[in-house]
Amino acid sequence: MSQKKKILVISYGGTIVMVVDKEKNMVVPAKNIDEIMELVPDLDQVADVSMEILSNKDSTNVSPQDWTRLAMFIQEQHDKYDGFVITHGTNTMAYTASALTIALGNGLQKPIVLTGSQLPLTEYGNDARFNFENAVKTAVVAAEQNIAEVMIVFSDLILRGSRSVKVSESSFRAFKSPAFPELGMILSTGIHFSSIVKKADPTIPLNIKPHFSNDIVSLDLTPGQLPGLIESIVTSGKCKGIIFKSHGAGSVPTEGEYSFLPLIKKTVGTLKIPVIVSTKFLGGNSYKKVNDECAVLALEAGAIPGGDLTDVMTEVKLMWILAQGTMTEDQVRKQMMTPYVGEMREII
């Protein structure tokens, strides 16, 4: 009989590690590891499971400092375990998955699985136990197959973390990967991975870059929005990058007082601050080769296309690039348009 894989469960909050306090009639974080493990007693059948509670915060309050903390903790524990499972609230799980993917880089040698739930373990009919058990199983099978991905496991889907977005506040299938196929499925016959998963490359050392800049602004463009309102932010001296989530494939308003072209030209040309145009549509793509004059004009004014990055990864990647040190707008442009960890298709 082969030795069980060693899996470290890192508790970083979320409904999945909460229980119902009957006296207060409310959901509260579990008091300790034993309370959680008693509710999922069969985990030791599939793996040698250890658990460490790092945080019980609501994921709405998760910040880039938390991404850094997680990345550095995984680096410390990387060689001690065969795989990792991170419990996390659903609100910002896609952000943490995207951030860990790019912070840990291509030197990652172990699978990392993020999971959460819509209902706590103590609630009848919950999805927490299903997700928890299958996250551990996924980590085990991934370790057996030498897969080194940061993944989200939710319901019966296995998704690439850097390609994932939250699509529902209540559905048991709360996450999707709109512009990229699922990495695998969880079926009654077991964990089934596709051929597109990334395998560990032992020739690449684990050399993490875990820091992120807070100094970006990300805005949905809305009809009638006045560029002058945003210009005051850009010229404040505190903004190091800006993202416009467009109505289409990178288009921005181009007429009269609503035109964003002068603002883009000033921001990029005079202030030397990078401007990214992305799309707010799930599975969308912002790139130059489109039949959209407003998108082409935005790029000609100096904006950088976000390609098929998710809106989440667009923000995370820009924050990560800006934290790597002082660089020119052209250097930021090149890095934004270059795939690093399977987070996007190359923009040609």
- The whole-angstrom Rg is 21 Å
Distance between the termini: 50 Å
The CATH H-level homologous superfamily of the largest domain: L-asparaginase, N-terminal domain
Count every helix, treating DSSP H or I runs of 4 or more residues as helices: 9
Structural class of the helices, strands and pairings?
Answer: alpha/beta
Q: How is the CATH topology of the largest domain named?
A: Rossmann fold
Main pleated sheet:
8 strands, mixed
Low-confidence stretches: none
**Total strand segments:** 16
Shape from CA axes?
Answer: globular
- SSE order, one letter for each helix or strand: EEEHEHEHEHEEEEEEEHEHEHEHH
- CATH architecture term of the largest domain: 3-Layer(aba) Sandwich
Mean pLDDT: 91
Portion in beta strands: 15-25%
Helical proportion, percent range:
25-40%
Spatial order of the strands forming the largest sheet: 4-1-5-6-7-8-11-12
For the record, the count of structural domains works out to 2
List keywords for this structure.
348 residues; alpha/beta; Rossmann fold; 2 domains; eight-stranded mixed sheet; four-stranded parallel sheet; 9 helices; 28% helix
Write up this protein.
By secondary structure, the chain is an alpha/beta fold. It has nine helices and 16 strands. Strand 6 (112-115), helix 4 (128-144) and strand 7 (150-154) form a beta-alpha-beta unit.
Summarize the structure in short:
It is built from 9 helices and 16 strands.
Question: Could you outline the blueprint of secondary structure elements for this entry?
Answer:
Elements: E1 6-12, E2 18-21, E3 26-29, H1 33-39, E4 48-55, H2 64-77, E5 83-87, H3 93-104, E6 112-115, H4 128-144, E7 150-154, E8 157-160, E9 165-166, E10 175-176, E11 184-187, E12 190-193, E13 216-220, H5 227-234, E14 241-246, H6 261-270, E15 275-279, H7 293-300, E16 304-305, H8 311-322, H9 329-336
Parallel strand pairs: 1-4, 1-5, 5-6, 6-7, 13-14, 14-15, 15-16
Antiparallel strand pairs: 2-3, 7-8, 8-11, 9-10, 11-12
Helix pairs in contact: 2-3, 3-8
